[in-house]
Amino acid sequence: MSIIIELVFTAIVMFGGLFMMFLFVLILAMALEPVERALSKMVWDMTGSNAIIASPKPGSFKDFSMRH
Known about the structure:
Blueprint: H1 2-50, H2 61-67
């Protein structure tokens, strides 16, 4: 009977460790979210002003799909 109790205890401890690691990663992601948001905004601001949108050539597929 003791081997069954040991196996159940080991399984519970392993699931508990998995749950604790999930919580750790979740809390880390929540803590770093403002940093990620600021970096993302900075990158979008840098690339947004210099972006040049090329107009499609007349008669191209893009021109056709824009008209219809």
